[in-house]
Amino acid sequence: MIKHVDNPVLEVHDLTVSYDRKPVLWDIDLTLPAGKLIGIVGPNGAGKSTLIKSVMGLTPNSSGYVKLFDKDLKQVRDRISYVPQRESVDWDFPASALDVVLMGRYGKLGLFKRPRKADRDIALDSLQKVGMDAYAGRQISQLSGGQQQRVFLARALAQQADLYFMDEPFAGVDAATEKAIIEILREMSAKGNTVIVVHHDLQSVTQYFDWVILLNMRLVGSGPTSEVFTTELLQETYGGKLTLLSDVGDLIRRERFPNREQFDKAQKPK
Amino acid sequence: MEALQIILAGSLVAIACGLLGCFLILRKMAMVGDAISHAVLPGIVLAFLFTGSRDSVTMLIGAGAIGILTTFLIEFFHKKGRLQTDASIGVTFTWLFAVGVILISVFAGKVDLDQDCVLYGEIAYVPLDLWITDSGQIMGPRVLYITGTVLIILIAFISLGYKELFLTTFDPAYASAIGISTAVWHYLLMGAVSLTTVASFESVGAILVVALLIAPPATAYLLTENLKKMLLITSLLGVVISAVGYYLAAWFDGSIAGAMASVAGLLFMLAFLLSPTNGLIAKHRRKKAILKPSGV
Ligand SMILES: Nc1ncnc2c1ncn2[C@@H]1O[C@H](COP(=O)(O)OP(=O)(O)OP(=O)(O)O)[C@@H](O)[C@H]1O
Ligand SMILES: [Mg+2]
């Protein structure tokens, strides 16, 4: 079930990506609508991070093409932001939270120019949005995992982009922070920004996302959550890890027919 | 006067090496300087064989070219061979050094040259090696001009490219994503390392260069949590190491380079023990404070 849209913010055409000649993404063909909160879902090693990286031009060996806002990446780089997986950097680095958030302004500044007062204000404002303004001067290794994740998010916000790619922004984040972050992402998409998020927790997919991409090396589904997030397609994506999937099946049913009996059944210990 | 010239030469080299070393240790490439110090040998031999000249500019060009080749090879084995950076550094420089040794032994008859004459410049001779213009005017120690120029180039490079160096060191993937080329900045940095180390080998000797490239930045890393302060502290340490090292050597009449390198090591030990944030003693105190709450 792959739904295509007109005037997509992102168009991926026949994309194949390989590492060491071994393909990890195979013939991906998708278009995404603007102004939506979009989830990418799939098992470990499915190629979720790779998909984002290759859209951002970070994987060398790929065929096919990617268009963003109907243009090449190079022409629209400053409209796009990227939040890497948190483990991808060494947090034992002599930098403060504010230093990291300021990096979000570098793309706009261009070569040789230093951040100015206006950039600092934007950076501080972004820190405040994620509830981290009190930690602006704190060295990043002295932040907890969830706080580091929020600093990364603030850096993306400071970029003031139109399209955001986020690789597992909820990894290692507590429930309250996750709620706060999803609120921010909602606001962003309400303002017309498009936010694309790699997500692992199947339980919350229907609550969070307007649109879902199911990925496992090839594209299993892409479309509005209600049409794509189905038991059959999940089965196809996760290759029948049944215990997990029957839970999700329950969940979907519960979402659709929220009656008491179903709820009790889903809650009962097995 | 001589003392001042030696201390000044030592300081210039120490600051230049230290500034680069800060970025190298944060990129986990601290041993690159060591690698270049060995790998340049074939460059020196080839430069000599092709030109028949032993003047320092020829040697510097030969060594500099191989220095850059070294950093290319290290990156190549790391990226294409998926080898760890340290393994890739180890393979590259031992191999190039071996090539240099073979070249020397093959051309032993023709080459009146060994690595001593280039690699082990001696800081004690700085005041003797004067730059005399064609008109016969004495301009002062040649080494001061060379290291001074290198330091000015470096400071210009780091202050102009600070934010790019900072970002590509901390988060290369994000840097590429916002359109800052990690490869360009990597090679600019490695070019700077090559230039600095080779020019410094010739001025003050390889051992001192390798020590100054790592020990002061490592010390500063323990003392601060801010990259700009780390660069500043490293520079101050460079001057202290140079001055204290010189007088230490004068006092017990030993090797100046050796004394400077030892002072660098001692300062590192001090920071390791006493640093207010990362020091062993501070950590020990904190642990005690937790075990024994105040007021008990
Ligand atoms: N740099 C790399 N070199 C070689 N293979 C890689 C590299 N990065 C990823 N792979 C392989 O590509 C496949 C997809 O990896 P990717 O990181 O995109 O998965 P993912 O869906 O993000 O997984 P996760 O949920 O664990 O983050 C995996 O099989 C992985 O082993
Ligand atoms: Mg991933």
Query: How do the strands of the widest beta sheet of chain B line up side by side?
Result: 1-2
| Whole-number tally of structural domains of chain A | 2
Radius of gyration computed on alpha carbons of chain B: 21 Å
Please state how the strands of the largest beta sheet of chain A are arranged side by side.
5-6-7-3-8-9
Give the SSE order of chain A as H and E letters: EEEHEHEHHHEHEHEEHHHH
Report the sheet with the most strands of chain B, covering strand number, pairing sense and barrel closure: 2 strands, antiparallel
Oligomer category = heterodimer
Number of alpha- plus pi-helical segments of chain A:
11
Largest interchain contact: A-B, 31 and 25 residues
| Biggest sheet descriptor of chain A | 6 strands, mixed
- Cα-atom Rg of chain A, whole angstroms? 19 Å
Short précis:
The complex is a heterodimer of chains A (270) and B (296). Chain A has 270 residues and is α/β, with parallel strands linked by helices.
What does this structure look like?
The complex is a heterodimer of chains A (270) and B (296). In chain A, helix 3 crosses helix 4 and helix 9 runs antiparallel to helix 10. In chain A, the strands form two sheets. Chain A has a six-stranded mixed β-sheet, sandwiched between helices. A three-stranded antiparallel β-sheet of chain A has the order 2-1-4, covered by helices on one side. Chain A has two domains: 178 residues, 3-Layer(aba) Sandwich (Rossmann fold), CATH 3.40.50; 72 residues, no CATH class. Chain A has eleven helices and nine strands. The longest helix of chain A is centred in the last third of the chain and has 16 residues. In chain B, 77% of the residues lie in helices and 2% in strands. Chain B has a two-stranded antiparallel sheet with strand order 1-2. The mean pLDDT of chain B is 86. Adenosine-5'-triphosphate binds next to helix 1 of chain A.
What are the key terms here?
heterodimer; A: 270 residues; alpha/beta; Rossmann fold; six-stranded mixed beta sheet; three-stranded antiparallel beta sheet; 11 helices; B: 296 residues; mainly alpha; ABC transporter involved in vitamin B12 uptake, BtuC; 77% helix; globular; binds adenosine-5'-triphosphate; binds magnesium ion
